[in-house]
Design brief:
Distance between the termini: 47 Å
Strand content: 15-25%
Order of helices and strands: EHEHHEEHEHEHH
Radius of gyration: 17 Å
Number of helices: 7
Length: about 210
C-alpha cells in the first residue's frame, strides 16, 4: 500500500512539508509506504475545462501533473497539503487539484483521502472546507483525525512546537493506515465497491 502526500506550498521544505512529514512518518510506522510530492511552484496553469485529458489520458498543460499522473492512478490513498493564503488554499494546490480530479478522478474514487492545512494564525478551516469538497464530490472516504487537520506556526520550527497540531498529523497518518488496511481486508473477503451509477447532471433551467 502507498499513500501520496502533495505539498501545495511554494516552499518545498516549509510549514506544510513539516506537517505532511509527520503524517508520512506515522504511515510508515504503520506499514504503509508514503511519498511527499512537491507541486507548489510547479503548476503552470489552472484547468481549462477543455476535455483533452478525457481523450488523451493526460492534461493539455504539460507540467508536474503529467509527470506524476501514473503514480496517482496506482496509489492507494492521498493527502493534499496547503498553506493558508488569504483564508483559502494556495493557488497552486487549487489548480493542481482541479486538474487532477478532472483528469483522473475516476482512478481515485473509493480510495481514502484527506486535506491538511498550515497557517500562521487563522483561515485554516475555510481552506480545509474548500479543498475537502474535491474528495466529497469524488466518492472518496475522507480520513479524519482527533481535531481539524491543521497546524499553526510561521516557520517549520514553530510548527514542530505546535504539539496539538503535530499530534493531529500523527493520528491522521495512523487513521489513514487503519482505513487502508480495513479496505484491503474487505476486498480479501469479497466486499466489492459500491454499485456505480452513470452520473446524472442537471441544472435549474427547464
Amino acid at each position: 500500500m502507498k499513500v501520496l502526500l502533495f505539498n501545495g506550498s511554494p516552499k518545498a521544505k516549509g510549514c506544510t512539508y513539516t506537517a505532511l512529514s509527520e503524517a508520512a512518518k506515522a504511515l510508515e510506522e504503520n506499514g504503509v509506504n508514503s511519498e511527499i510530492i512537491h507541486v507548489g511552484g510547479n503548476i503552470a496553469a489552472g484547468c481549462k475545462g477543455c476535455g483533452f485529458c478525457a481523450k488523451n489520458g493526460k492534461c493539455v498543460t504539460n507540467d508536474v501533473l503529467n509527470e506524476i499522473i501514473d503514480k496517482v492512478k496506482e496509489a492507494d490513498g492521498y493527502v493534499f497539503g496547503s498553506p493558508v493564503h488569504y483564508a483559502s488554499a494556495s493557488g497552486d494546490i487549487t489548480s493542481f487539484m482541479d486538474r487532477l480530479f478532472y483528469s483522473c478522478g475516476g482512478a481515485m474514487a473509493y480510495k481514502p483521502g484527506c486535506v491538511v492545512c498550515s497557517c500562521r494564525r487563522g483561515g485554516a478551516t475555510a481552506a480545509l472546507d474548500q479543498l475537502s469538497k474535491h474528495l466529497a464530490f469524488n466518492n472518496m472516504p475522507v480520513v479524519s483525525s482527533n481535531y481539524w487537520n491543521m497546524v499553526h506556526g510561521n516557520t517549520p520550527d514553530e510548527i514542530v512546537q505546535d504539539e496539538e497540531g503535530m499530534q493531529t498529523m500523527r493520528v491522521l497518518g495512523r487513521n489513514m493506515a487503519w482505513l487502508l488496511k480495513c479496505i484491503e481486508a474487505g476486498k480479501a473477503n469479497g466486499v466489492a465497491e459500491p454499485e456505480k451509477e452513470t452520473k446524472i447532471k442537471t441544472n435549474y433551467i427547464r
